[in-house]
Amino acid sequence: MLERELTISNRLGLHARATAKLVQTLSGFRCNATLAAKGREVNAKSIMGVMLLAAGQGTPVTVRIDGEDEAAAMQEVVSLFERRFDEDA
To answer: What total of structural domains would you count in the chain?
Structure first.
């Protein structure tokens, strides 16, 4: 299992478009993924679950990924966070 703490840095946080991009990124992998923030842990492959976190800009989130392709999945998630979900030009 891999675990990494990341901070949401895009201006709008994990709103619908950013959440959809995260879920779409993870959907191609066979591993399990969770996001934890503000005392809650949700399935990171579930749009509704991630939206329930209501994680705004500056919120620290813990990403946990477990499964056969966990390293590649984590790399993609970290890249997505670093690119600010491709929103801030």
So the answer is: 1
pTM of the model: 0.93
Kindly report the CATH number assigned to the domain that includes residue 32.
3.30.1340.10
Domain that holds residue 12: 2-86
Which two structure tokens, joined as six digits, stand for 4? 């990494």
Helix axes 16-27, 70-82, angle to 10 degrees: 160
Active site residues: 15
pLDDT in tens, 14-50: 999 999 999 999 999 999 999 999 999 999 999 999 9
- 3-class secondary structure for the chain? CEEEEEECCCCCCCCHHHHHHHHHHHHCCCCEEEEEECCEEEECCCHHHHHHCCCCCCCEEEEEEECCCHHHHHHHHHHHHHCHHHCCC
